[in-house]
Amino acid sequence: MKTLPRSLMLLGPLLLFLGLTYILPFLGVMRWSVTQPELGLGQYATALSDPLILSVFVRTLRVCVLVTVFSVIGAYIVTLLWVRGSPAQRLVMELCILIPFWISLLTRAFGWLAMLSNRGILNSWLETLGIINEPLAMVRNEFGVIVGMTHFLLPFAVFPLATAMRNVDERVLKAARGMGAGRARVFWQVFVPMTATGILGAALVVFVFSLGFFVTPAILGGGRSVMVAELIYLYIFQIPNWGLAAAISVLLMLTVGALMVLLMRITNPEKNNNA
Question: Regarding the domain delimited by 27-163+196-270, which CATH topology (the fold level of the hierarchy) does it fall under?
Answer without folding.
Answer: MetI-like fold (1.10.3720)
